[in-house]
Design goal:
By secondary structure, this protein is of the alpha+beta class. It contains 13 helices and 16 strands. Strands 1, 5, 6, 7, 8, 9, 10, 11, 12, 13, 15 and 16 form a twelve-stranded mixed β-sheet that branches. A two-stranded antiparallel sheet has the order 2-3. Strands 4-14 form a two-stranded antiparallel ribbon.
């Protein structure tokens, strides 16, 4: 009886005898598997990068800005502008649908000067809970607190880039900067919150909101003294943005005298909704790419079946001779089955290893320097899908030709030229 070692030896000799044909067949499978994993990895890199980018903004966040009220729905003439106020924020904090809210006043025209240099980043008047709602990791010092607001202190927290520009090579804590000529004490420096070459967020500086309203209020006719640029809030339950948005619209519409159903009256950015949209886009992309990969593997399996059928046809006399001298149907079937499985399995593993190696190289080269994009990575479910598809393809590609070879009658096989 022929042993497994003898069968494997015959498998390798048969593959080696048709080296070019075997290589081209295996290359097709490897290319298909590697391409599928790489494309899915790239898609997951975009997904991860977008999530990370949104996380840099804040946690479970909806931003509402002052808007314009249309006279009629869907009409964009004769629109009346309005500004959000601290009283709007106070009512939103009382809503059971809203977990937390923070008001913010921003200016882009305030000149920042230290004894060493000057800068011109965005200045934000904020409340203490701003650092919890938005992503503001402190590097040194502290953030604005309630006593700063109550006493209208002239204190400032610098962004990472602003600190480097205003105090090059020097510690900033305890030093002073002037904002449009007014002296502010530096109490903290924010760690890096930008990504890639976009350092806009790193050039922001933060002062107490009450100080900002007192020294740099919003200017214009009929603008309330407590007008702010934005109110940013979080839903009571994480991800439940619909109820929170409806509640905020009702409060703002009632306080500013318009129907909250007028969608055009609101200028807002719902990061929760955007994250869902991004997730759905990449889910669809993963399904599409996974389907393409499975079809590619199926075509590769058809190619292997074809190659194995050709091999059976070419080796008909060999099969007949072996059966005539005592080879069993099982040993013949096993040999051709193992050939198909070997061609499929090895080429698939080479494709997986090649894709993983290329993605590792891209991670090393690219790092995290591209805004909104993480380097591609090998996704476990895609690797499992590839392995499962390879196993199925290998069985199909090996079993049918192997059964055909095993069923040949010895006399008929020997009679064929």
């Amino acid at each position: 009886m022929q042993g497994l070692g003898d069968t494997l030896g015959q498998v390798f000799r048969a593959i080696w005898a048709s080296k070019l044909r075997s290589f081209l067949t295996m290359f097709g499978i490897a290319w298909g598997v590697g391409s599928m994993l790489l494309l899915i990895g790239l898609g997951e890199g975009f997904r991860s990068g977008q999530r990370r980018q949104l996380a840099k903004l804040g946690n479970d966040l909806i931003m509402n800005f002052g808007g314009t009220i249309p006279a009629l729905a869907n009409q964009h003439t004769g629109m009346r502008p309005y500004k959000l106020t601290l009283r709007d924020e106070a009512e939103m904090l009382l809503s059971p649908e809203i977990r937390d809210a923070t008001a913010m006043l921003t200016h882009n025209d305030i000149k920042e000067v230290s004894q060493h240099a000057s800068a011109g980043g965005q200045v934000l008047g904020v409340e203490p809970n701003f650092a919890g709602i938005r992503f503001v990791p402190l590097k040194v010092g502290r953030f604005v607190d309630h006593s700063d607001l109550d006493e209208r202190r002239r204190v400032v927290v610098l962004g990472k880039k602003s600190a480097e520009l205003l105090f090059p090579g020097r510690p900033a804590i305890g030093e002073f900067v002037t904002l449009n000529g007014a002296r502010f004490l530096v109490i903290g420096v924010v760690d890096n919150i930008s990504r890639g070459n976009n350092d806009f967020d790193n050039q922001k500086v933060y002062v107490p909101l009450t100080t900002m309203l007192e020294m740099f209020p919003v200017k214009g006719e009929n603008i309330p003294a407590d007008a702010v640029t934005s109110i940013q809030y979080q839903p009571h339950l994480r991800g439940e943005n619909a109820a929170a948005t409806a509640s905020a619209h009702t409060i703002i519409g009632r306080r500013h005298g318009f129907d909250p159903s007028l969608v055009d009256a609101f200028d807002e950015w719902d990061t929760i909704k955007e994250e869902r949209i991004v997730g759905k886009i990449f889910d669809a992309m993963d399904v599409f790419l996974g389907g393409v990969g499975i079809v590619t593997l199926a075509l590769g399996a058809v190619g292997i079946i074809n190659i194995m059928l050709v091999s059976v046809s070419e080796r008909t006399r060999e099969i007949g001779l072996r059966k005539a001298i005592g080879a069993t149907n099982t040993s013949i079937l096993m040999q051709f089955f193992l050939e198909g499985v070997f061609l499929t399995g090895v080429s698939g593993l080479v494709g997986i290893a090649g894709a993983a190696g290329l993605m590792t190289l891209l991670q090393t080269v690219a790092g995290e320097g591209i805004q909104g994009f993480d380097p591609p990575r090998l996704v476990p479910w895609s690797a499992a899908l590839a392995l499962g598809s390879l196993a199925l393809s290998g069985i199909v590609a090996g079993l049918y030709p192997a059964r055909k070879a095993a069923m040949l009658e010895p006399v008929e096989a020997l009679r064929r030229e």
